[in-house]
Amino acid sequence: MRIVLSDTYRDMSRKAAYIVASQIILNPRSVLGFATGETPLGLYRMLISMYWAGDLDFSGITTFNLDEYYGLSEESPYSYRFYMKKNLFQHINIREDQWHIPRGTAENVEEECRRYDRAIEKAGGIDLQILGLGVDGHIGFNEPDEKFEGGTHLVELQESTLKANARFFPSPEEVPRFALSMGIKTIMKAKKILLLASGASKADVIYEALQGEVIPELPASILQLHPDVTCILDGGAASRLEKERDERFS
Known about the structure:
This protein is an alpha/beta fold. Helices cover 33% and strands 16% of the residues. Strand 2 (31-34), helix 2 (41-52) and strand 3 (62-65) form a beta-alpha-beta unit. 42% of the residues are buried.
């Protein structure tokens, strides 16, 4: 695992964009796994700028998103499909049939989950998976649990996640309580993983995930077992790691 420190959120986003851009340039037919939320927004803005500068071509890539709220239509401004179109896809040269997001309105949830996993396998697996990190250690919508979930599955969101995501909705009551999420096994099968974390609120969970035990109660801890993970952290997210390092060598 490589840990890359950045002074600011912008610098974190810039470094992440260079990694994603390198993947696309070296393999123009890459399969990329995308995340949503606030953390990757800076990365997406950087990628858009690179595209408009003529430095990136997205025409050959395939993408799969980590998750989608269950019950939200594709047209909902709170869906992750809408988020990806607004914040990345409508600004670059990628066709709609090249990007994939779980269908939150699927009538048969189990079949939709199986369909999504099969689509990832048919594409050859994910070359580079981008991850954010919840304050409770979730990656995708894989919440703390008694076991690591394997494939794409329906998740009941925990109160901490509902509270954290309420700021994106008109009221806390409108946050969907369920979501479809890639499972831990699917994430871990990605050839490379890029984890981004920003802000002091992530300092404790970053420390525990990267330095603590590998336990399903802290889903991100499983990343310690992946052979190719790069973590890019801004000063706030890395503050406890740096404090422990300074105390150890003082």
